[in-house]
Amino acid sequence: MANTFNGNGASLQVPGNNLNDAKQPTRPKEKLTRTLSASTLRDRLSKLAATPLNVPNPVATLHANVNFVPAKIPRKRRLQMLAVAVWSVSIVITTVAFLYVCSIPPLWPFLAVYLFWARCVDKSPENGGRTSQWFRSLSFWKYFADYYPASFLKEADLPPDRPYVFGYHPHGIIGMGALATFATEATGFSAAFPGIKPHLLTLASNFQMPFYRDILMALGVCSVSKQSCSNILKAGPGSAITIVVGGAAESLSAHPGTADLTLKRRLGFIKLAIQHGADLVPVFSFGENDIYQQMPNQRGTMIYAFQRKFQSIFGFTLPLFHGRGLLNYNVGLMPYRRQIVAVIGNPIHVERCEKPTLEELTRVQQRYIEELTRIWNTYKDTFAKARLRELNIID
User: Where does the secretion signal sit in this chain (predicted)?
Assistant: First the structure.
């Protein structure tokens, strides 16, 4: 309070003029609060500085999840890997080669002649192809087969006095075992079955790709169309075709440790054999389903529905799979090194008939399934020790 004097000499007290009275009573508390907050903050920062940060090292994480190939690998294994890698991207290589040729104007006349000949003149894919024994016997294919390794087991002699229809099971993702056994001499097919001229069959669309079509035909690969099959079997004794019976639909069931075959409704190859008097030869390839890992796509899932729709539109499937890489063992699109053994069973003799009845087709099919089942039961404990379940005819 401040003192002032009135006219009578008495002092009066006037409130509000003393500077001490102007101080706000809450300021000391605010100052105390700020001091405590700063102290708390300092303590927390000290603790944070003393605690190491758990930031993952990306390089260490990569090495922990990816199994890299050792630096020192035998030259032979590197060549095997190279052969499989080249074949795995052969469509890409031939497509790039074709586009490169298209970029060179002086070569356009030759390119135009080649395309006209391939599309309008050359009917080899429907008439037995242009098999080159030299090309089938290249060392390249030996390295290719030894990568897995791929081989076959012969159960019976096949006299070259009649035609043959080989039924190959299972399809797998790509059918590498079928290629090694029936489209090359890497496993010694011609030496084991003298006089038999094998022709592995594939989709006719594969022969629409420039340059790639010529590689297929040099291997003896032909179109799987009905006309192509008939033309080959009509060529006479010793002519043989190999049909991967399950086709594209069966590739969706290709999971390691399983043997789910699409066979119940497949009567076309049996009818073809009867019409041409060709013996049926079941072939079961142990390990074909093990060289790739496919995403779970059980029936009823959205993935399975999409894959079947894709197949109905384009005529081939789109399996979602992975394998290994060039420099690692668990991430990539190259197949795993898994043994593939194609057991070539006993031939099933059929009587020639131009118009076989459904009863005859069913009877021969039953004999075929029995022989295929016998092969599985005989060799499953040798070549399929890691199986998850038994042989299953799913469709």
Answer: none
Helices marked H in 51-129 — which ranges?
A: 58-65, 75-88, 90-102, 108-116
| Residue 342 CB neighbour total at 10 angstroms | 26
DSSP string across 228-261: HHHHHHTT-TTEEEEEETTHHHHHTT--TT--EE
CA angle 152, 153, 159 (to 5 degrees): 100
Interval 144-155 mean pLDDT = 97
Q: Which two tokens stand for residue 121?
A: 């003149």
Strands (DSSP E) along 74-207, which ranges? 150-154, 164-169, 197-202
How far is Cα 198 from Cα 194, in angstroms, rounded to an integer? 11
Distance CA(298)–CA(212), nearest Å, equals 33
Tell me the C-alpha to C-alpha distance, in Å, between residue 70 and each of 90, 133, 178, 254, 323. Answer: 26, 37, 30, 30, 18
Nearest Cα residue to 384 out of 335, 343, 329: 343
Which residue in the block uniquely carries the two structure tokens 């990306």? 58
DSSP H or E segment with residue 174? none
Is the pLDDT assigned to residue 30 strictly greater than 90? no
Residue with tokens 């059980």: 298
pLDDT digit string (tens) for 65-120?
788 888 888 999 999 999 999 999 999 999 999 999 999 999 999 999 999 999 99
Residue 151 to residue 389: CA distance in whole angstroms: 23
Q: Are strands 239-244 and 197-202 parallel, antiparallel or unpaired?
A: parallel
Cα-flanking dihedrals φ and ψ of residue 34, to 5°? -65, -35
CB 123 within 8 A of CB 218: no
Q: How is residue 119 annotated by DSSP?
A: I
* 44 three-state secondary structure: helix
- Average pLDDT taken over every residue of the chain: 87
Q: Encode pLDDT of 232-258 as tens digits.
A: 999 989 999 999 999 888 988 899 999
Identify the CA nearest to 300 among candidates 264, 338, 252.
252
Three-state DSSP at 22 gives helix
